[in-house]
Specification:
Blueprint lengths: L16 H7 L2 H8 L5 H15 L5 E5 L7 H6 L3 E8 L2 H11 L9 H11 L5 H14 E6 L14 E7 L9 H12 L2 E13 L3 E4 L2 E4 L5 H10 L8 E6 L8 E8 L2
Helix pairs in contact: 3-6, 6-7, 8-9
């Protein structure tokens, strides 16, 4: 993911769904954070692929708060028979729909699909990339609005074998207590014995997209561990990895975690 610009001037916003809906620019986000593969992308992809290897095939999965991105779906499509995708910003869902429709102006996710295939140990040939893209388009069957701060994050009672929530739970809270509640809310979407796969940043209380700054909670690995336990996950199943990112970014590192509901 690319470094964020340092000249943003807008007053930081509270992380409500309405704030994101009115202010978040998906094109700026993709241009800034997905303008070329780096070690952070490789770390993230390898963790996701490794976590999915320990789960059965045929999952019903949900990509929660996915923004305008499909890098995680590239891995989910190898294990899931059906994927629902949600975000709090309709413009992000519109970006995803353009890719699902294979429209000419859609973002090019081929480099991330290649990275996923390589992490899986599959040669990333053009044919293999095309097959995985077709799988992604076939298995994403529903796009939905979500709100991580709501008791019913999807506005309805629905359960999944796996929920993936990358870099969204930490931007839906401003302190650890709020984040744990967000984790509990998202966990209502998971069947007993199901999995939650989460990515968060560390060392930042703000992040920048274009000329706008958004608040987020600065979490530590210990916060993530305790949050999973408080949200009802088996501590014995919890696997976490961390990565320090280069200096000059708005955040200092990443924590990735996967755990199974009791």
């Amino acid at each position: 993911m690319a470094d964020s610009p340092k000249n943003a001037v807008n007053v930081p916003l509270l992380p409500t769904r309405q704030d994101f809906e009115h202010t978040f620019d998906p094109k700026s986000y993709l241009d800034e954070y997905f303008n070329g593969l780096d070690d952070e992308d490789r770390f993230t992809t390898q963790f996701i692929v490794s976590a999915l290897r320990k789960m059965p095939k045929g999952l019903v999965a949900h990509e929660f708060g996915g923004g305008p991105t499909l890098y995680s779906v590239a891995a989910l499509a190898a294990r899931a028979r059906e994927i629902h995708f949600s975000d709090c910003v309709q413009a992000n869902l519109d970006q995803v729909q353009r890719w699902l429709n294979d429209e000419p102006d859609a973002f090019d996710w081929r480099p991330y699909i290649e990275l996923t295939l390589e992490a899986e140990g599959t040669p990333a040939t053009p044919a293999a990339v095309a097959r995985r893209a077709a799988d992604m388009r076939r298995r994403v069957t529903r796009l939905m609005i979500c709100d991580a701060q709501a008791a019913l994050p999807l506005g309805e009672t629905i359960k999944y074998d796996l929920v993936a929530a990358h870099h969204c739970t930490d931007v839906a809270a401003t302190n650890v207590a709020e984040w744990i509640q967000v984790l509990r809310n998202v966990s209502t979407l998971i069947v007993p014995g199901g999995w939650l796969l989460v990515s968060v940043t560390t060392g930042a209380g703000l992040y920048t997209v274009g000329q706008n700054k958004f608040r987020c909670v600065d979490l530590t690995p210990e916060d993530v561990y305790q949050g999973y336990v408080a949200a009802g996950y088996d501590s014995r199943s919890l696997h976490m990895e961390t990565k320090v990112v280069p200096d000059g970014r708005e955040y200092s590192g990443i924590v990735m975690a996967v755990g199974r509901q009791l």
